[in-house]
Amino acid sequence: IEIFRLYTDDKVRKRKGVRKMANFLLQVPNKFRTFSISASSNGAPSGVPQAGGPVILELPLDKIRRPLMRTRGNDPQKVKDLMDSIGEIGLQVPIDVLEVDGVYYGFSGCHRFEAHQRLGLPTIRCKIRRGTKETLRHHLR
Predict the structure, then answer these.
(1) Ordered DSSP codes for 40-73
(2) CATH code at 55-140
């Protein structure tokens, strides 16, 4: 078994080139030294459950539709503060995302989403729950 560690100690983190995020151990059997994550045809992870509660996953920013994005502007100072925080310690609270028929919709987390965009990060941690088209219509009202 190989052990991988994310370091929070600044000296070790800089030497290893690891972002300061968490301190945990991931034990992986040697036969799984390389592995991949499968995705659906629209490029989003296939790990979203068919039933049950929400799941937390990293999703590509470009796979999340933001239908209410143009309804209000974000506070630039809040976005900047989040950019500083995300750059230092990572995203602490995932954004809420609704998955309907394999398409992801974001209705909250506008400042966190913009901070990720402006930082040039390709993905964002999301709390994903499945919904129906009726649930989506309710959110769009």
Answers:
(1) -TTSSBS-S-SSSS-EEEEEEGGGEE-TTGGGS-
(2) 3.90.1530.10
Which contiguous run of DSSP H or E holds residue 26?
A: strand 25-28
Domain ranges for the chain, please list them: 55-140
Tens of pLDDT, residue by residue over 97-125, are 999 999 999 988 999 999 999 999 999 99
Q: What is the pLDDT of residue 53?
A: 83
Between CA 56 and CA 112 the distance in angstroms is 16
104 touches 63 (CB < 8 A) = yes
Which pTM does this prediction carry? 0.63
Please give the Cα distance from 12 to 57 (Å, whole number): 27
- Both tokens of 90, joined, read 């990572």
